[in-house]
Design brief:
- The chain has two domains: 3-30 and 196-221; 37-169, Immunoglobulin-like.
- The chain is globular.
- The chain has 222 residues and is an alpha+beta fold.
- It is built from three helices and ten strands.
- Helix 1 runs antiparallel to helix 3 (190-221).
- Keywords: Membrane, Transmembrane, Transmembrane helix.
Length: 222
Amino acid sequence: MTNIQRRNTRISQIGGIVTALAITAVVAAAPAWAHVHVTSDHAAPGQSAVLTFMVPNESEKGSLTTELNIVLPNLTGVNTEQLPGWTARLDRDLAAGTVKSITWTAAPGAGIPADEFALFRVSVVLPKADSVSFPATQTYADGTVVRWDEPTPPGGAEPENPVPTLSLTAAPDAMEHHGQPSPTVAAQAAPASDDTARWLAGAALVVAAVGVALAVVSRRRA
């Protein structure tokens, strides 16, 4: 084997290491989208909002997701969006005038296929709180039931089946003087900053790996 061939072999090996490190960094930094999530464009305490529940199918057996139950903290103004192939049932507390939960059921032969996801939307009046959780139960055609109801401990790692949680932002009149957000708003913005920090950390790892690889190649050439 010539010197050029040996150098090319070393470069290929280093490239493989760098690629592996890059993949590891991205996986570690990216959010776990394989869970049931809830989002909303305008989520202010005590205000109306449209919630979107993203429900992925993680069945290893290729079974359809055929039912989704979302527990609500006794909300008012609840209306579900029409979803082809699904029917929605509201569990109402008639005395209180609130809705306790929503259950979407797929029509026969319908459902969410494996490795796909569906979006379930509902309009509600949000509670006056900093955040609100929506325990979810996902049922598959083969009888498998997955409960997304585990809270994330303070400063701890995300649990295996985290409960869908929505952080509520302050209404415009909650802004302090000079356009600065109140302490509550700043605290609620922290999760986004944490996500950014994780991505930056992953990017830094990739850059460091590339730097090491280039240094090794340069040393070999010398």
